[in-house]
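General statements about sequence and structure are easier to judge against a single worked case. For one protein, we set the task of working out the structure tokens from the amino acid sequence alone. This step matters because it turns folding into a mapping between discrete strings. The amino acid sequence and the backbone structure tokens for this protein are reproduced below.
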Amino acid sequence: MALYTVTSEIFTENKNAYIVKSNSAISNFIFKYPSYMIKSKCLDNIITYDNDDDMDIDRQQEGKLLIEHYISTELQYVGLQVWRGALLLADYILSNPDLFKDKTILELGAGVGLTSIVASFVAEKVICTDIDLKGIMKLIRRNFMRNSAYIKSKVYIKELNFLNLQWPTFYKKRMNEATVILAADVIYDENVTEGFVNTLTKLLNSKTQKVVYIALEKRYVFTTVNMDVNAPMYEDFLGYIKKKQLNWHIEYIKIDFPQYFKYNRVSQMILLKIENVLSE
């Protein structure tokens, strides 16, 4: 019997060139430079010139990330693909650089590393984490190397499993350095979602102010139990937070900020901001 596989909409939406090898690809993700990047000297090492040795102004208006990813996977390996949430979160970072500049940023469930790579444009440190399934940690490292010209921060690539919160002391110290936490499209499975909430609970149980940005797409399905259409994984996520009676401040961010990457920003997409409430 054939295994059930899923394919990200990004693979069909992205019309840029890609190199396919078996079930994997290296895709070009084109993005517009925000004005502050065009003016910044950070682009000095990637300026291009035409045949007459004149500066190629048009090319300076766009950047290109080379991202290795899978085309389709079984559900438990969806982190090997690129999903819209990663691009929405990347857009938010590029739109609001002051929120991330010179910060220590931790990404949970980073997948192929696209959002962490964008965060490394402006952060002081980026801690890029995921569970190491099917060589995903090595894949993330390859993607950082492919895009090294853009990276301005220190980068740490570490394994973190939502279902195993027994961190060594040095590991816990590294994770707790982060004051900004990112997560994109990690809410797709009941056990993983509960583990994600438990991981956030541990990270936000801190005397330091921390902020979490979570990008996701509400995926609606018809259930015979309710005889209605709902988004079960999203609702489970909110349910776990409510069940734990967590003292978090939750805010929905409007997704009308500038779009720098090319993808279909559908209305079902959500960007959540969560902050821990410090006791006086």
Notes: The first strand starts at residue 6 and ends at 7. The first helix runs from residue 9 to 13.
